[in-house]
Amino acid sequence: MKIALIVSCLLMVSLTGRGQQQAANRPTLVAGIPVNYAEDSVGNYTLPDLLTCADGQRVTDAKTWTQKRRPELLKLVEDIQFGKMPQGPRKIRYNVFDKGTPAFNNKAIRKQVRIYLTDDTTSHQVNVVIYLPGALKQPAPMLLSISFAAYNQTIADSGLYVGNIWSREGKLVRADKPTPFGKMNVEQFMDAGIGYATLYYGDIEPDFKDGIKYGIRTTYLKAGQTDVAPDEWGAISAWAWGMSRVMDYFETDKQIDAKRIAIQGASRLGKTVLWAGIHDPRFKVVVASVSGEGGAALSRRNFGETVAHITDPTRYLYQFAQNYNSYAKQLDRLPFDGHALVALMAPRPLLLQTGSTDYWSDPKGEFLSAVAATPVYALFGEKGPQTNTLPAPGDTSQLLNHLGYFMHEGGHGVLPTDWPQIITYLKKYL
Ligand code: GCU
Questions:
Q1: Which protein residue's CA is at the shortest distance from atom 6 of ligand 1?
Q2: Are the C-beta atoms of 209 and 152 separated by less than 8 Å?
Q3: pLDDT at residue 9, as a whole number
Q4: Using a 6 Å cutoff on CB, does residue 268 contact ligand 1?
Q5: What b-and-e string marks burial along 202-213, b requiring 16 or more CB atoms within 10 Å of the CB?
Q6: From 2, 9, 181, 312, mutation site for ligand 1 pocket: most ligand atoms within 8 A of C-beta
Q7: Residue span of the signal peptide, if any (predicted)?
Q8: What phi-psi label fits residue 229: left (phi over 0), alpha (psi between -120 and 50 degrees) or beta?
C-alpha cells in the first residue's frame, strides 16, 4: 500500500524530461496534517543566522566560514536531518563490462560499469552508463544524474544492459517494461561537449519503508543491530553515498575529468544530490531539481510540505535520520533551515531548478533560501540571486549566478525545456 503510494507519487514526476507536466501539486491533508498554501498564513519566522557560530563568533570572511562555521553546520545537518554515513566502502570493485562502444551515430562513446559495493558480487551492485562526447579529445566533464528508473528504460539505446528495478510489491524485477518517466535526450549533452552518466537509485537502496533490509545500509549494521541509530543514515544518505562511489570510479577512469563532475536529481533525488554535493566536495557542481522540503525549501516557511509531513513515520522518515522527526513539532529549535543546505555548497556552483505550480515543494521557499544563503556565497566573492523578488516562471535572469535559480512554468519535475537551461549553466560553471 505504502509502496503503491510512493510509486503513484513518482508517476507524477518527469525525471528525464518528457514526462507529464503536473497541473498543480497541491494536496490539502497529508498524514492527517493540514497543508497551507495561503501566503498570508505562512507565519512569521526567523531563520537561524548562518553567519554566527555556535559560540557567538561572527563570520566575516571565507576562512572562518570554511574552517569553523561550515563544519559545525555540516555536523548538525548530518546528525539531525540526513544521518551519518560511513566514510567509504570497505571494499569496492568495478567491472567495466562495456569498454567503449560508439553510440548515437558516433556522437558518443558509451561505457557501462558495474560497481560492486560489497564482496558479494550477487547483490549491492550499481550499474552506471557513461556517454563520453565522441568528438572530445581530452578527459570529459560529466553530468551524473541519479534516476528513478533503470538506465535502459530512460535512454533509447539498444546496446544497454537491462537492469532490475523494485516493483510496487517491493520485489526486484527485470526493468524490461517502459516507464512513465520518459526518455533522456543524451545527444544534447554530447553537442555541448559534456559527458552524461546515470544510475538507478534502487541499485543502492530501495525506496520504501523497510528498504534498509535490502539496501546497502543493512551491510553496515553492527552485529545484533536491527536498525540504524537515530543519527545514522537514512535512505537519502545511502543514495548520496552511492553517488560518491560512482565518483570513486570516475577518479579511476582516464577518459573522465573527475575534477569536473556535476550531479543532478529531482524531488527526493534533488534532496539527495544537494546532500551528496554538500557531503562530498569532489562534486564540482550540483543541480538540485524540485528538491522542496528537506531540500532547498525553507522549513520555517509554512507553505506546502513541512517537516511534520515529510518525517511522519507513515511517509518518508526512512529517508532521513530518525532524529529529524523530533523537530516536527518544534521547528523553532531546529538549528538550521533549508538556507543552510544551500550555503553549505558555497563556494561551489549550485543551481536550484523549480516549477511555478509545484506548490507542495514551495518554489518560493527555495528562492528565499537562496536569497538567505547569498551572504555566504558573497564571502567568496560569488553571487546568488540579485533580487529578493521571486522571478516569474521562465525568467532566466537569475539562472547564471554562481548560486543559480530557475523556475519553469509548470509543476513538479524536469521539463524537456529545462535541459537547455541546465546545459547553459553547466557550460558556464563546469
Ligand atoms: C513526495 C514528498 C516530497 C518528495 C516527492 C518526490 O511528494 O513529499 O518531499 O520530494 O515525494 O520525491 O517526488
A1: 267
A2: no
A3: 39
A4: yes
A5: bbbbbbbbebbe
A6: 9
A7: 1-23
A8: beta
| CB 13 near ligand 1, within 6 Å | yes
Active site residue 267: yes
Looking from the CA of 120 toward its CB, the CA atoms found within 13 Å total 5
The DSSP call for residue 187 is H
The number of residues in the chain equals 430
Ligand 1: does its nearest atom lie under 6 Å from the Cβ of 293? yes
Q: Is the CB of 267 under 6 A from ligand 1?
A: yes
H or E segment to which residue 415 belongs: none
Task: Check if the beta carbon of residue 187 is closer than 8 Å to that of residue 176.
Answer: no
The residue from 267, 356, 361, 369 that is catalytic is 267
CB distance 59 to 52 below 8 Å:
yes
Cα of 10 vs its chain's centroid, Å: 15
Residue 271 CA: nearest ligand 1 atom is 10
The residue with cell 527526493 is 268
Q: What is the DSSP pairing of strand 164-166 with strand 172-174? A: antiparallel
pTM higher than 0.90, yes or no?
yes
Which pLDDT tens digit goes with each residue over 153-194? Answer: 999 999 999 999 999 888 999 999 989 888 999 999 999 999
Q: Does residue 10 have a pLDDT over 70?
A: no
Establish whether 412 is a catalytic residue. yes
The answer to whether the CB of 165 falls within 8 A of the CB of 150 is yes
Domains of the chain: 2-91+139-154+178-429 (3.40.50.1820)
Q: What is the pLDDT of residues 192-250, one digit of tens each?
A: 999 999 999 999 999 999 999 999 999 999 999 989 999 999 999 999 999 999 999 99
pLDDT per residue as tens digits for the range 328-341: 999 999 999 999 99
**Comparing C-alpha atoms, which of 302, 387, 379 is closest to residue 338?**
302
Residue whose CB lies within 8 A of the most ligand 1 atoms, among 208, 360, 362, 412, for a mutation test: 360
CB distance 310 to ligand 1 below 6 Å: yes
- Closest residue CA from atom 5 of ligand 1: 267
